Structure formats: structure tokens, C-alpha cells
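Reviewers of the previous submission asked for a worked example of the structure-prediction workflow described in the proposal, so we include one complete record here. The input consisted solely of the amino acid sequence. No template or homolog information was supplied to the procedure at any stage.
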Amino acid sequence: QVQLVESGGGLVQAGGSLRLSCAASRRTYAMAWFRQAPGKEREFVAASSWSGRNLDYADSVKGRFSISRDNVENTAYLRMNSLKPEDTATYYCAAGQRGGQTERSYDYWGQGTQVTVSS
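From that input alone, the workflow returned the following C-alpha cells.
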């Protein structure tokens, strides 16, 4: 079992930046971020393999968001720049052994952290 704890969410103005953190209780191969806006399905945001050499991003965040990992601390980060109101959502950290853009690829999930971007 792996416990994931997210932090770093909050309220920010459009154009601003935030960095989310996800602390894992032990090492996992793939870590990813998903988000869910009110009334919408949860969607993929970004993923990283253990080494960090394999990165994947949703088209909607490419060039603005960056995922990274600290494997000594078993922590993943999501740096979000140039935030837009449509980025408002609950952001979830996920971890597993396979990786990818689908939810079923991940076995463990955090409780979520709210990101609100005001216009």
C-alpha cells in the first residue's frame, strides 16, 4: 500500500503560478497528476516515470505545467505557470507501476488539493 498526500493548492489570479507537491510513503514507478473540475470527469494532466526521462502532458497544459520528481524524498511536483480560470479543479496525485494517461493505470490516489484560478 502507498499513501499519497498532496499539498500546495490554493487561490491564485489568472497568469499566476502554483507548485503542487505529492509525498508518497514509498517509492513507485510512475507518478501522475489528474484533475477534476465541478461537473466534469476527472482528466489526465501530467505523468512521470521513475527516472523522469519519460514525461507526458495533456495538450491543455503543455508549455505551462511541468512535472518533476525527487526520488530521495519520494515526492512528485507539478509546477503550474500561466494559470487560467479553466485550470480550476481539484488536483489528484496518483501512483502505480505502469504509468500512462488513464486512471486505471494507477493503483494509489491522494485525497486531492483544490486549485482555484480567478479571472
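The longest strand covers residues 89-96. We consider this example representative of the routine output the project will generate in years two and three.
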